[in-house]
Amino acid sequence: MQASRTPVQLCIKREYLIVLKSDLQELPAESVVFCISEDFGRCRILETSACKCPLQYSSLVFFCRIEAARCPDVVVAQIDPKKLRKKQTVNIAISGCQPAPEGYSPTLKWQQQQVANFSSVRQSLNKHRNHWRSQDLDSNVNMPKLEDEEGWKKFCLGERVYSEIDAESDHENLGIDYIKVGFPPLLSIVSRMNQATVTSVLEYLISWFGEKKFTPELGRWFYALLACLEKPLLPEAHSLIRQLARRCSEVRVLEENKNEEQVSALNLLICLVSRYFDQRDLADEPS
């Protein structure tokens, strides 16, 4: 004869002790005591002791449901903000790009054309990377180590830009001194850079650009490094290119003489970040 499933209710301070009659034969009363409130939602264990007798499946499910009901709906970790503040290494601004000055906003057609050209450059670079990587570098090309931030700034920008030396003082020197004017992003150079190097050099130059003016040398390297970035972007690269686009928009607004060539270069970098790398919230509205 099947045991009755009628629950036994024992009133204890407006709470009810619920145990199925069929379980009483196998579960000693002192083994597990559950206290359930009137709404049958919240519950707590009053007393537990080792139970040596096996549970029936229905009892196990019943007690599992009670255990689940004891867990809070939302758990909030206790975090000390002071500890996080000490380890903070990246500050990310959430604002978008500043709009282009009146009359300098690029057209949608121009932006689409630049994206198409940039895509062709990337495809060509990937196709011929192994060839250019195998070419010998000139004897005066000494690529800095990955962690040498100042060395990379001098390598890319030259000592003249790095030290802010007046270019007119070098006019008497004939020929090109790449140590002074910086090495251009030749294919034989950028093809040797892995993704860690590309990301690090991009970070170094963006850091420089955050405090210095925009120069043609800087623009050439930004374009080349963006062409070397592999998709999908790593989180660090994603943050860096957004930082680059925002800085370009700031410099574009602050440009006093509105040099068309320089504004066009800044527009190009913003365009590539926003439209090729899909950061559409940073894109310029077509004029």
UniProtKB/TrEMBL annotation:
Keywords: Cytoplasm, mRNA processing, mRNA splicing, Nucleus
Chief place where the protein resides: cytoplasm
Record bears the keyword Nucleus: yes
BP GO annotations: spliceosomal snRNP assembly
Pfam families linked to this entry: SIP1
Family stated for the protein in its record: Belongs to the gemin-2 family.
PANTHER family: GEM-ASSOCIATED PROTEIN 2, GEMIN2
Identification of the protein by name: Gem-associated protein 2
Gene source species: Gallus gallus
Gene: GEMIN2
